[in-house]
Amino acid sequence: MSEEQSSTKTMFQLPVNNLGSLRKARKTVKKILSDIGLEYCKEHIEDFKQFEPNDFYLKNTTWEDVGLWDPSLTKNQEECDAREHLPFKLLESS
Most CB contacts within 10 A, which of 16, 28, 56, 85? Predict the structure, then answer.
């Protein structure tokens, strides 16, 4: 294969069917992972208590200290939903 041919590879994604069932499965997986995370926290809470700040630090912390939310860094929900309804996506490798 020549160098020119190898640099113009194109990859296709198969059409996405049954979006409803995929979304339902995602919710189930998310719930399971949340439950696992909660169990982990409950099991290890004593291990992490030594790192707990005392009340002085909690009462003197403001949201500005933690960080401000920047809406420009979040995804546009309409844009994401529109992409899911495309019959296929064309991805070109560089």
Answer: 16
